[in-house]
Design a protein that fits this description.
- By secondary structure, the protein is of the alpha+beta class.
- 45% of the residues lie in helices and 11% in strands.
- The chain is globular.
Amino acid sequence: MTTVKKKKRSGGCVGAIILTAIIFAAGVGFEKAFEGLEKLPEYGSETAVNVTVQTAKVPENHLLILVNGNNKIPDDYETELTELSNGEKVSSEIYPDLQKMFDDMREAGIYPVVGEGYRTREKQQEIMEDKIRAFENEGHSQKRAEKMAREWVAIPGTSEHELGLAVDINADKERSDNQEVYDWLYQNAYKYGFILRYPIGKTKITGIDYEPWHYRYVGREYSEEIMNSGLCLEEWLEQNYNNS
């Protein structure tokens, strides 16, 4: 009996030591886990979005460069910018056609403005973080808020606004309303080299919800063809250049 009792005490002691070690290790693990929740991840990294992000290829016609959640802007990509009267900037390459389009819209009694043009990567990061916090404030978990935000805001480094080739066009509210601006653009923007970048029903492909205000310049050589195809840019490039 004595021998058995000693064994029980010894086993209990060892078990206590093991249990203490497990609790300590778990405590360290939890501490590290919560440290990771103190700040938002840097978007544009593969770990943040759980997708394979590659550097976008710049085609011979660089206006057809595909930038999306899987294709980031090359680090050495540069574009000359032109500043608009409201302080927004766009690539100088698109300015003549953009100006012509706006002039024709005004002649038709519709008054547009560029709400968003060129953005720096830092600005895109700020927009993403603001969107995530907005969804969190609605009661969504951080993970859910991040997923929802990515359906509305491009991950920094993957936004067409950073190319200077994309513009968000809205109405001068004192003279027009957004819907008449969107309707006119849908019918006519291709004539000036612009395409509706995120059409209805293409979210699973583009990664971005329908945005009737977001137009991308691809040049007059291809804009009508893309518009008439009913395809989003990813699909059209896949069919014609196998580039997506």
